[in-house]
Amino acid sequence: MKPAVTIRDVAQAAGVSIQTVSNVMHGKPSVRADLQSRVLDVIEQLGYYPSQAAQGLRQRASHTLGFLVFDPSPRALADPVHGEVIAGMCDVARTLGYNLLVDTPLIRPEAPAEHFLRLFRTRRVDAAVITLSGRVGGHEEVISELIAAEILFVLLEREIVGDHVYCLLGANYAGAYQATQAMLERGHTRIAFIDSLQMWPAVDQRLHGYIGAMEAHGLADAVRVVSSIDWSAEGGAAAMRLLLEDGALPPPTAVLAGNDLLAIGAMHTIRAAGLRIPEDLAIIGFDDFEFTRYVEPTLSTVRLPSYDMGRQAAQLLIQHLRGEPATERCFVLPTELMLRRSI
After folding, report:
1. Among candidates 18, 22, 26, 20, which has minimal Cα distance to 55?
2. Using one digit for the tens of pLDDT, what is the confidence trace for 221-256?
3. Measured between alpha carbons, how far is residue 100 from residues 108, 225, 246, 317 in Å?
4. Of the residues 91, 170, 282, 338, which has the fewest C-beta atoms closer than 10 A?
5. In percent, how much of the chain has pLDDT > 70?
6. Mean pLDDT, the chain, integer
7. Are 169 and 304 in contact (CB under 8 A)?
8. How far apart are alpha carbons 316 and 165 in whole angstroms?
9. Residue 110 confidence (pLDDT)
10. CA 334, 336, 341 angle in degrees (round to 5)?
């Protein structure tokens, strides 16, 4: 078994005294910035971060919450869902005397949680709401390191277990199942689903909700999924073109999109092809962004309470920081089918 890293190992590797390492770990202002940075780098490289030191750092609260998004897209923060979550968090944080830091940390294969952990170790944030892109099961190393370091965080749209972890999820499976059911009740059997190559766990649940409803009606063989290159309206338009131009299969009469941006792009392609919505092709989105009520025709969609998720996440973190952790650790917020003129 590899011997545990000690404070003496850190001091030796950083070329400083043990007292200097201790001062850095406990946030004392007497340490020069360059020495602090060097010690923190060595701590991360050697994996030295005892829980008692973590407690020492947490005693010097910054009164700042983080909203941290890992997504390879440079426009990740432009996603309206993220904007709604941030707005909800700001509402609570401002009221309770906290600030909010928004960041898209880098994740390197050799140190997947380094950027995340530094934000906490340097006391820039006390706790954070974290969202990780990618398919279910991805970024396990990041999550494991956050849990091992006893970081307090809320993870969105993923269910995990940890002493300092809360989970907030939308009822994505149920919402997609209900939306597909609504199309089936209107006589549609050729129903397609548009997702993205840049999958998220929430959208994976939506896909399975669609498949579940199709299978429940004996239409497993009619399941049809096409993937956009991303989550943009442009990607949705391109995916819809693939569905309409596929000569091997008849075009769908209804589409469920993984989010509202994909749906808006799909609507553009449908109209450009000379088809009517919903007479020739019905469509339902997901998220209920504000613009869905102002397009023509108004877009039917599944409402995800993103703003409420942000509010509840901030409340959970601040309550925990104030010594009152919630007994329940995983929360599922209901979705709502908003039927408008596109179906």
Report:
1. 26
2. 999 999 998 888 999 999 999 999 998 899 999 999
3. 24, 38, 47, 12
4. 91
5. 89
6. 88
7. no
8. 10
9. 65
10. 170
- According to DSSP, the residues that pair with 86 across neighbouring strands are none
Contact 51, 112 (CB under 8 A): no
What dihedral angle (degrees, nearest 10) is formed by the CA atoms of 148, 154, 159, 165? 40
pLDDT at 109: 65
Q: Is 246 exposed, middle or buried (0-12, 13-18, 19+ CB in 10 A)?
A: middle
Q: Where are the alpha helices (DSSP H) in the chain?
A: 7-14, 18-25, 33-46, 51-59, 80-95, 114-121, 140-148, 172-185, 201-216, 233-245, 260-272, 306-321
Category of 2 on φ-ψ map: left (φ > 0), alpha (ψ -120 to 50) or beta: beta
Does 55 score more than 60 pLDDT? Answer: no
Pairing status of strand 336-338 against strand 300-303: antiparallel
CB neighbours of 276 closer than 8 A, spacing ≥ 6?
A: none
Query: What pLDDT does residue 51 have?
Result: 45
Cα separation of 294 and 238, whole Å? 22
**CA-based R_g, the chain, Å:** 23
Contacts of 50 (CB under 8 A, 6+ apart): none
- The residue type of 237 is A
Set out the domains of the chain in order of their start, with CATH numbers: 7-48 (1.10.260.40), 61-171+307-335 (3.40.50.2300), 172-303 (3.40.50.2300)
Q: Which residue has the tokens 């020739």?
A: 280
pLDDT tens-digit profile of 184-227?
A: 999 999 999 999 987 788 999 999 999 999 999 999 999 999 99
Residues 226 and 258: beta-carbon distance below 8 Å: no
Q: Is the pLDDT of residue 332 over 60?
A: yes
206 Ramachandran zone, left/alpha/beta (phi>0; psi -120 to 50): alpha
- Strands 153-156 and 330-333 turn out to be unpaired
Q: How far apart are CA 25 and CA 22, in angstroms?
A: 5
Which residue type is seen at 131? T
